[in-house]
Amino acid sequence: MTSQRRRAPADSEMRGKLIGAAEAIIREQGHGALTARTLADRLGLSRQIVHYYFKSMDELLTQVVLNCHEQSKQALIDLAASEDPLRAIWSLSNQPDFATLALELAVLAARRPAVREVVRACAEEQRALQTQILVDHLKSRGIAPLIDPELAVFVLTAMSQTMVQEDAVGITFAHAKVLATVDEALGEFAATGGSWKFRKP
Predict the structure, then answer these.
(1) Which residue of 7, 8, 55, 173 has the lowest C-beta tally within 10 Å?
(2) Which 3 state secondary structure label does DSSP give 109?
(3) d(Cα 46, Cα 194) in Å, to the nearest integer?
(4) Residue 1 maps to a domain
(5) C-beta of residue 149 within 8 angstroms of C-beta of residue 131
(6) Which CA distances in Å does 114 have to 58, 110, 118?
């Protein structure tokens, strides 16, 4: 239900604290654990204050998605200066907090139609940025990619998120082999723009 109460300014400090705390709850406990009560309790506030700053939980969740997106974009922009941006993207995607939050937001999009479009748009913008960073890096070195950069980014980020998800429940089968193979493939890609590991026979 949407409240019609007077709203606080969108740029208020408390609003930012609520968004940050909501993100932490989602990362640590999953999006299902986020309610006005759990959020207020985390900050030692009354539940009513959540409704003062956000007209609905969907609005709060949308702001969490947008906030995470801006953080991820900045991290990717910082990676653009790396000598090996594809390896840097792989390392970023392998960070448990990053991958866990990405997975939670994907599930959130499937369960909450009101935030689905913003999750989709943010995810596609990030993937496009990752790909462009890789393309620009190879071009600056005069390397014509032998593998489609979009494919390279998709495979690496999907693999890293799967491994983090499995690590969370104790699944490690084949992980060492995957890490060794990816490390070798990344080295070859950095040198040539391709890798036999991912080429068709």
Answers:
(1) 173
(2) helix
(3) 56
(4) yes
(5) yes
(6) 6, 10, 9
